[in-house]
Amino acid sequence: MSEKRECPPELKARLRAGFDQEWRKELRRAIPVKERMKLARQHMPEREPTVRNKAFVEVNRGLEAEAAVREARRCLDCANPECVLGCPVAIDIPSFVKLVEQGDFAGSVRKIRETNSLPAVCGRVCPQETQCEEVCNLKKATGVAVAIGNLERFVSDYERLHGGAAVPPLAASSGRRVAVIGAGPAGLTVAGDLAKLGHRVTVFEALHESGGVLVYGIPEFRLPKSILRAEVDYLKRMGVEFRMNFVVGKTASLADLRAEGYDAFFIGTGAGLPNWMKIPGENLVGVYSANEYLTRVNLMRAYAFPDYDTPVLFGKRAAVIGGGNVAMDSVRTAKRLGAELAAIIYRRSRVEMPARIEEVKHAEEEGIEFHFLTVPTRYIGDEYGHVKAMECLRMELGEPDSSGRRRPVPVPGSEFMTEVDLVVCAIGQSPNPLLPQTEKDIRLGKWGNIDADMTTMATSVPGIYAGGDIVRGGATVILAMGDGRVAAAEMNKYLRNGASAKA
């Protein structure tokens, strides 16, 4: 994002009320800007690496109240709050941070919930360092941003531990019904926003638990499932209905739901189709897609064996192919399940890795090995069809490709063999193909994603909207939530302008 961006007038107007409150002026006078700039960022307490790499307990322990207040004091009360522009769901960050400084933790999380129904989730898994914190004016001045994500986590945890989130005021019933397909971050966001606006929302989810990638993809040590369930419960108390084990496209079609009286639809079915390298040996026992591996461990709780007798191989020499957050989740999971060697195999260098800096740091602390500029070329099996080794090739970096990263180029004659008994392929996922294939009128992109107008999230079919990974391919939780907020606003206009299920 450019450093010369201006805060849009409508956003300035929305934020100005917070800036002009008398208590904020008093806080600014109490600690002048120059003094705030000298304050050190508060450290996030973490569990010891040699303890946490054997258990599925949350790594980050969360800030204590005093540390949260000290961190909030670092906020400069910028006249042009670029942090808000860096947030895909446009949280009023300066106001929520100042409420923390004042000690009004309940008021702070209420401020966040005005635009974000999942603050406890975002405070844990959102990449703030490349979004709101990246454009923080304090970072531009001192090199160290306000710890916005850690503060969001703190106040959301405070809320949960002190009685839970109160249901916000809901608009009068519109008489309109909305079907949300998929209970992932995009669908949950749409459901929360439309429920506030007075519409009757039903979420249809194929799995037995809500959350989408939040529940099947992100491990317990990064996002405890109890945290997610509390956020889903908040939506239920707002009147959102959840219908589980319901596969739209098989259990019922959109036409069937339209016949039931649903007036508008949001498709947020995610990117559940794993990508493969298409090299020999990928069908061997012990070679998993990251999607299957993490689903077995997280959603089906293989990590809690023998209480949950879910089959998954516990390898001793585990190799995870890829360099993103999913790869980090997979390799750190393998370590916790008993792997003596757990390694990342990545075809580029450390500089090009897309994983969050914090996740890479945590992995290194936990004993994960990193093999850069390396790519597997084939997997070798034993007489029982189980993977026992893989052949790899060394790479070197060439010119940048379309992603802006330097393209990996094979080094001739650099092949080598290494023993492995577990491989997890985490090189990305493609959009879930089921619903697009069964709804022929919805226009698709060349990669099988739903082609939606990114300014409205509207599809080619009136009354049907889509967002998140089914549109973007593999992206972040917060970008999916941003799509959900845009879609909800546009769907509200559509519903209020006389849309009918019979139209």
Protein described:
- The chain has 503 residues and is α/β, with parallel strands linked by helices.
- The chain folds into 3 domains: 9-161, Alpha-helical ferredoxin (Fumarate Reductase Iron-sulfur Protein, Chain B, domain 2), CATH 1.10.1060.10; 177-265 and 435-496, FAD/NAD(P)-binding domain; 274-429, FAD/NAD(P)-binding domain.
- Helices cover 36% and strands 15% of the residues.
- The strands form 4 sheets. Strands 3-2-1-4-16 form a 5-stranded parallel sheet.
- A hairpin with a 5-residue loop joins β11 (387-400) and β12 (406-410).
- α12 packs parallel to α21 and α16 packs across α17 (325-336).
- The longest helix has 20 residues, at 477-496.
- It is globular, with a radius of gyration of 24 Å.
- Mean pLDDT is 92; it is low at 1-5.
Main attributes?
alpha/beta, 15% strand, FAD/NAD(P)-binding domain, disordered N terminus, Fumarate Reductase Iron-sulfur Protein, Chain B, domain 2, 3 domains, five-stranded parallel beta sheet, globular, 503 residues
Strand content: 5-15%
* Total E-strand runs: 16
Give the overall silhouette.
globular
Structural class category = alpha/beta
Please tell me how large the radius of gyration is: 24 Å
Largest sheet entry:
5 strands, parallel
* CATH top level label of the largest domain: Alpha Beta
Q: What does the secondary structure layout of this molecule look like, with pairings?
A:
Elements: H1 9-19, H2 22-30, H3 33-36, H4 49-52, H5 65-72, H6 82-85, H7 93-102, H8 105-113, H9 119-125, H10 137-142, H11 148-161, E1 177-181, H12 185-196, E2 200-204, H13 213-216, H14 225-237, E3 241-243, H15 254-259, E4 264-267, E5 273-274, E6 287-289, H16 290-299, E7 317-321, H17 325-336, E8 341-345, H18 357-365, E9 369-371, E10 374-381, E11 387-400, E12 406-410, E13 416-419, E14 422-425, E15 429-430, H19 434-438, E16 464-466, H20 469-472, H21 477-496
Parallel strand pairs: 1-2, 1-4, 2-3, 4-16, 6-14, 7-8, 7-14, 8-9
Antiparallel strand pairs: 5-15, 10-11, 11-12, 11-13
Helix pairs in contact: 5-7, 5-11, 7-8, 7-11, 8-11, 9-11, 12-21, 16-17
